[in-house]
Amino acid sequence: MAIGGWLTALDQERQRREAHIKSQLGEVYSPLVSIRLQIKAKSELRLKLSIAAGAAWSAKFAGIEAPMRKKQISERDSQAYDKLQNYNNR
């Protein structure tokens, strides 16, 4: 009888320890995983926007040979692209 009680006590202690560890994991690591997933999603979006902006910027100059015309386009439209670049460099 004593051995059965002792084994039950050991099993209950193990269960309490496991429950405590699961609780800690849920309280600490779940929010960290969520934050990491948010950062990853924002990084992927930033990369997609950067690629699209680069393609759009290059398309503005496609077929234009005159340096003055390129300068006009650059001065007119560069502010929006500069904002994106500055945001990416933060």
Descriptive overview:
Helix content is 90%, strand content 0%. The protein is mostly helical. The protein has one domain (2-88). Helix 1 runs antiparallel to helix 2. The radius of gyration is 29 Å and the shape is rod-shaped. The mean pLDDT is 88.
Can I get a quick summary?
The protein has 90 residues and is mainly α. The protein has helices at residues 2-60, 67-88.
* Subunit arrangement of the protein: single chain
Q: Could you tell me the radius of gyration in angstroms?
A: 29 Å
The N- to C-terminal Cα distance equals 68 Å
Mean pLDDT: 88
Major sheet: none
Number of strands: 0
Assess the beta-strand content as a share of residues. under 5%
State the low-pLDDT regions, or none. Answer: none
* Residues in helix, %: over 70%
Topology:
Elements: H1 2-60, H2 67-88
Helix pairs in contact: 1-2
Keywords:
single chain, 90 residues, mainly alpha, 2 helices, rod-shaped
